Amino acid sequence: xxxxxxxxxxxxxxxxxxxxxxxxxxxxxxxxxxxxxxxxxxxxxxxxxxxxxxxxxxxxxxxxxxxxxxxxxxxxxxxxxxxxxxxxxxxxxxxxxxxxxxxxxxxxxxxxxxxxxxxxxxxxxxxxxxxxxxxxxxxxxxxxxxxxxxxxxxxxxxxxxxxxxxxxxxxxxxxxxxxxxxxxxxxxxxxxxxxxxxxxxxxxxxxxxxxxxxxxxxxxxxxxxxxxxxxxxxxxxxxx
Length: 240
Description:
- 72% of the residues lie in helices and 0% in strands.
- It is mainly α.
- The chain has one domain (57-230).
């Protein structure tokens, strides 16, 4: 346990290296490891501090995507017309129905924004259930280690939770109506292959993918400036 605690303290100091010079940093690590002290916090406090940082970061990520234009206004995660229906989009635009296609795209992004808030309690549950070993692994890992951990532990639940909400949201924002009208119009065009992709499944998958893009961005912010973005507990853990 002592070795684990010493290693964990060293990792925390490494994360906080921008706050001191290289010489100060090396001296601090050496002193901490040799003394076996925890710098004023326990192993449990260290893990809890990291959890607080992740809860804050994921909460902000969810808030960003669940706001109006959270998806639609962000080119990086905006949900386009389904790729397997590109032929539909091209043909409809060619016959002067581009405005209706644009309405459909807007409505599916609105549905994703409407459903995104469902992610917050799922993330909180995964983070609070994180072990000390998981927390250490995240601090030691790549810049998206926490995002990958959450993707692994929450994706199935997110999909289960998102899909019915998105289905309802698609109806609420008239996406289903626009989609049905467009597909019916397309299917009436002579010699085209009839199609009707599952819109709810597509939007669910795209919404979750976009959400993790934003969570990764929030994680990077935490790693770059942990003290400024967290509560008193994490200031104690990550601070000098």
